[in-house]
């Protein structure tokens, strides 16, 4: 079992995801931990031309490396995230995401 996970941003390592593409740093289940995963997510406005609802299934922390996303929290704040922005969403949050520019996001599910 690996105790260290390491990667460089590699455009050839991205694979299809639920929406957009992902380059995994740590896949769900790696090292026997189904609840912890991390990677880079790329998405464009063409891949998500309309806002989409996303119930947060597990705690998720994100860092926007480039691009622009808007996340509306049901009964809460609206997060306008651009390069350098961070957010942490708790499991159970009901969100609506809008992809405003091609975006590269680092995420951690826990």
Automatic annotation (TrEMBL):
Limits of the (S)-ureidoglycine aminohydrolase cupin domain: 37-102
Designated name of the protein: (S)-ureidoglycine aminohydrolase cupin domain-containing protein
Q: Please, which domain of life does this record's source organism belong to? A: Bacteria
**Gene3D superfamilies with a match to the protein in the record:** Jelly Rolls
- Membrane spanning segments where? none
* Naturally occurring in which organism (per UniProt): Rhodococcus ruber BKS 20-38
SUPFAM superfamilies given in the database record: RmlC-like cupins
InterPro entries given for it? RmlC-like_jellyroll, RmlC_Cupin_sf, UGlyAH_Cupin_dom
